[in-house]
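Q: Could you fold this chain for me?
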Amino acid sequence: MSDVVYHRSRIPGAVLFLFLLIGCGRPAKNITAAKTTLLSAVFTADAGWDIYPGGGYRYGPSIIRNADGSIDAWFAAPGGSFDSRQLLYSDPGTQSPLPLSTGNRAAQQFTAGSSFYAIAVACPNWNSTNSSITLTLYQWNTDYATTVAGTPVATQVYTNYADNQNLQLAKAGNFPAGAYLWLLSNPSGTAGVWEKSGDVAGVNNYVNGQLVTGNSFQSFILSTPSSGLSYWDQAAYRRTTDDGKTWSTDQMVLKPTLGSRDQLSVCDPGLVKAGNYYYVGYTSTEDTAGVFNHAYVARSTSPTGPWQKWNGSGWGGNPQPVITFTGNSKSWGAGEPCMVVNNDTLFFYYTWNDVNILETRVATVNASDTIWPAHVVLRGTAVDKSTISGADHCDIKYRADLKKYYAIHTAARLTVNSYIVLWESADGISFTKIAEIRSNLKPYLHSCGWSGDEKGHIDPSKRQYLSYAYGPDWGNWKTAWHPISFQP
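A: Sure. Below is the predicted structure, expressed as structure tokens.
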């Protein structure tokens, strides 16, 4: 019982009686019709392994265990751009953030072989909302000191910039070809710059005026205004046929749509299958500060797409939210969806993060409705996490053997004392906290998910898995994979 903290008063009577009678013996390996003992919803995380090594991230897993034993998984992954750009760093290199405290500077000298529209620099801020920094472009002159003592070609102060924003200096008539140096200075809050391992020929990097080697700051040259458009996140897909020991190469299967309401990001994928279609819910925003998010949905007959996004009245074209946030415009908003199909009802769960409110809410709809996003019925709060420090999104599954719905989420996220919370519901609408899972978990974890079938049902007679991202460095996380064992 060291694995979990039990909230005994909230465990259903029948299950509690069985638990006290049987104790903490080893969980049954299989359930057969001849057995009357059911496995409890409470589970332990067995020793696991990493399925993503870091140098970026794969978080918020949505996991489907197929009938043939294969497992499909989707994750939030770093974004990209809508057009070509000239990288000034080694793309295969390991990514890491460099904090820039007050008074520190980072710079990069480069040569543009032809005229260019803009220079862009990728800057993290560790998910803060009050970080600022100044980006300045100089024409290169002899050496670093002489260059920064000269007159800037362009400069801009980025006040309260968004986490992982590509800060840009642009010119309508293009900058001429030649040698340049960009400089990040006057940092405040938790400003920084991304870098990747590896040197690049013709590119020199400086920290506080000193030449550094082995890493290159993550910046790029944009040839035209259209090539300057980039997005923060996209959905990655992978498959395993040996229970997570080996995986297929990641495919980026769902991306933002240029010129649309979701063009900044496609994040937090959550999937289910109903009829012939896979449905994926995801988060996006139109606010460059990363707040005021909404929940979207798309569909495909394949787990890898192509996807048709909900457009407000049908599928395909200009994406529109299925859940629109109506709270404070400076709050995080709505998103991080997950779905369950049970008895022809589709349960659409989503985060609602407003002033002093952190909830998972639920909407329901007929799963056979071909345009169900137009007909969802809002059912209110399913899980209220407002008083749980460092809580994040829920991943919810259904147990047919117990006739109950179960939600998990992380708490004390991104801290050394992080853990997972388990909730239970008889109707999928209102949940009660029943346990905390702590043992065998990595510190600094967040954004967890667990496996179920294509409808979001857990069959405890088949091996199930827990996954989450973890690590102390913002945006540079490993992804863990644990077999789980349900308690008798």
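A (continued): Residues 1-36 have pLDDT under 50 and may be disordered.
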